[in-house]
Specification:
Length: 466
C-alpha cells in the first residue's frame, strides 16, 4: 500500500514538473499571439515579430507564420515577409498572393509572376491577383495579356480604381474608342487621378473626331506621351503604322519615341517626310529630333520650312530665333523673336520669351529685355512666369535686391517652383550668403530631381558645396 502511495506521489510530482516545464511556453505563445493581434494595425512590424514568437511556441498553429508574413509586408519588409511565408507549411490563397508580392518587391519578378499565374491556373483568382498580373504584363510589354487581366480585375471588383485606370491606358494604345469608359470610371473612384484623366479624355476625344483608325491611334499616342506613358505611346504608333503604313504622322511620332528610348528614330522621320513633305507637324518633329542631337543647322532647315508653311504662326518664329541663336547668330535670332511679337502683339508669352532671350544671351537686356518683361507683366499680371522673368531681368541688370524681392514674392503664391529656388540660390551665392544659397539649391533639386532646374542646381551644389 505504501508503495502504491509512493508511486502516486511520484506521479503527481512528475505531472507538476511537466506542467512547470510545458505550460509557461504555451502561455507565452498565447500571450504573444494576443499582443500581436492587438498591435497588428498600429505597429505591423512589431506585430509580425510577436506572431513569429507565437508560431514557434505554438507549433500546431501553422497559420501564424502566414500572419507574420502578411504583417511584415505591410511594414514594407519583403525580406522578412518572404522568410515567414516560406516557413508556413500551408498558405491559403491570401498567403500565396502575398508570397508573390514578397518576390516582386525583392526584384524577383519572374518568381512573382510564376506564383501569381499558379494561383490563376488553380482557379484562385481575385481582383487583386489579376491587377498584379496586369501590371507585370504591362511592364513586360505583353499588352494584350495585360488588358485581358485588368479587364477581369474590373469585373471582379467594380471599385478597383487602379485596374480601371490601367485598363484605360492600355486600351488607348489598342482601341481608343473603348478607353474612355474605364478612364471615366477610374476618375469617379479616385479623385486624385482626375487631373491626368482629364488630359487623357481631352486628347482621346480629339483623336476620335477622325474616322481614320491610324489617325485615332496616332492622336492617342500623342496623348499618352503627354501623361508620360511613352511605352504605350510606342505601341499606339506601331498599331497606327500597321493600320495604315502610309499614314505619315504615325511614322514621325514613332521616330520621336525611338529617339527617347535611344533607339535611333531618324529612319522613321525620313519615312514620314517621304510620305508628306508639306506637313508642318512632321517638319516640327524633325526639327525637335535634330535639336536634341545638337544638329542645329538641320533643325533650322526644318523650322524654316514649318514657318514657310505656316507664316502667320508666331511659334515657328520663336523656334527659329532659338535655333539660330544657338548657332551663334544672336542678332538674327532676336529678329525672329521680334517677328513673333509682330504676329501676336497682345500675347504675353512672346514678350516674355523675348525678355528671357535677352537674358539668356546677355544681349540688349536694358533696351529690349526690360521693356519686354514690363509688357509681359502688363498683359498678364497674374501669370507668375512673367514675374519670374522680371526677376531675371533685374538680376541681369545687377539689381539683386529687386530680383530677390520679386522671386520671394513669387514663392508666396507658388511655393513649388524649382526655377525660382535655383535663381535665388545663384543670387545668394553672388551675395556670399552660403547657407541661403545651399538651402535654395537643395530645394530646387528636391522639386525637380529629373528636370533641367534640378540638374543645374545639383551641379552647383557639387561645385560650391562638395
Amino acid at each position: 500500500m505504501n508503495d502504491k502511495r509512493r508511486f502516486l506521489s511520484f506521479s503527481a510530482i512528475l505531472i507538476l514538473l511537466l506542467a512547470l516545464v510545458l505550460v509557461p511556453p504555451v502561455l507565452m505563445g498565447y500571450l504573444n499571439l494576443s499582443r500581436a493581434e492587438d498591435m497588428a494595425t498600429t505597429d505591423p512590424g512589431l506585430a509580425a515579430l510577436k506572431y513569429e514568437t507565437a508560431a514557434k511556441l505554438l507549433p500546431w498553429r501553422e497559420d501564424l507564420w502566414e500572419q507574420a508574413g502578411l504583417l511584415a509586408l505591410a511594414d514594407e519588409n519583403p525580406e522578412l515577409a518572404y522568410f515567414y511565408l516560406e516557413h508556413s507549411p500551408g498558405l491559403n490563397s491570401t498567403g500565396q498572393l502575398a508570397l508573390g508580392d514578397a518576390y516582386y518587391r525583392l526584384g524577383k519578378v519572374e518568381s512573382a509572376l510564376e506564383q501569381w499565374e499558379g494561383l490563376r491556373n488553380d482557379g484562385l483568382g481575385s481582383a487583386q491577383l489579376y491587377n498584379r498580373l496586369g501590371h507585370v504584363y504591362y511592364q513586360q510589354g505583353r499588352y494584350e495579356e495585360a488588358s485581358e487581366a485588368l479587364s477581369i480585375a474590373t469585373r471582379l471588383d467594380d471599385l478597383d480604381a487602379d485596374s480601371f485606370y490601367m485598363l484605360g491606358l492600355l486600351l488607348s494604345a489598342q482601341s481608343p474608342q473603348n478607353a474612355l469608359s474605364p478612364l471615366i470610371r477610374a476618375g469617379q473612384l479616385d479623385p486624385a487621378l482626375d487631373p491626368v484623366i482629364q488630359v487623357l479624355r481631352r486628347g482621346l476625344n480629339i483623336a476620335l473626331l477622325s474616322s481614320d483608325k491610324a489617325a485615332q491611334l496616332t492622336g492617342a499616342g500623342r496623348t499618352l506621351i503627354a501623361v508620360g506613358a511613352w511605352s504605350l505611346a510606342r505601341e499606339a504608333f506601331l498599331n497606327a503604322t500597321e493600320a495604315d503604313s502610309r499614314y505619315a504622322p504615325a511614322w514621325a511620332w514613332m521616330g520621336q519615341v525611338k529617339q527617347a528610348f535611344q533607339e535611333g528614330g531618324l529612319p522613321e522621320l525620313d519615312r514620314a517626310l517621304e510620305l508628306d513633305k508639306n506637313s508642318v507637324e512632321i517638319r516640327g518633329l524633325r526639327a525637335v529630333y535634330f535639336m536634341r542631337e545638337n544638329r542645329f543647322n538641320e533643325a533650322r532647315v526644318e523650322f524654316e520650312e514649318a514657318a514657310r508653311l505656316e507664316p502667320m504662326n508666331p511659334d515657328w518664329q520663336v523656334a527659329l530665333g532659338d535655333v539660330i541663336a544657338r548657332t551663334g547668330d544672336v542678332p538674327v535670332g532676336l529678329e525672329h523673336y521680334q517677328a513673333a511679337i509682330d504676329l501676336s502683339p497682345r500675347k504675353a508669352d512672346y514678350w516674355r520669351a523675348l525678355a528671357n532671350f535677352t537674358v539668356d544671351y546677355n544681349y540688349n537686356v536694358k533696351d529690349i529685355g526690360f521693356p519686354a518683361a514690363l509688357q509681359a507683366r502688363a498683359l498678364a499680371p497674374e501669370d507668375h512666369q512673367n514675374n519670374i522673368t522680371m526677376g531675371r531681368v533685374y538680376f541681369a541688370l545687377g539689381d539683386l535686391e529687386a530680383a530677390k524681392e520679386i522671386w520671394e514674392d513669387a514663392l508666396q503664391t507658388n511655393p513649388e517652383t524649382p526655377a525660382v529656388y535655383l535663381y535665388l540660390g545663384v543670387l545668394f551665392l553672388q551675395q556670399g550668403n552660403s547657407k541661403s544659397a545651399y538651402d535654395n539649391l537643395v530645394q530646387a533639386v528636391n522639386l525637380d530631381p529629373s528636370g533641367p532646374y534640378g540638374a543645374q542646381a545639383g551641379r552647383m551644389l557639387d561645385q560650391y558645396f562638395p
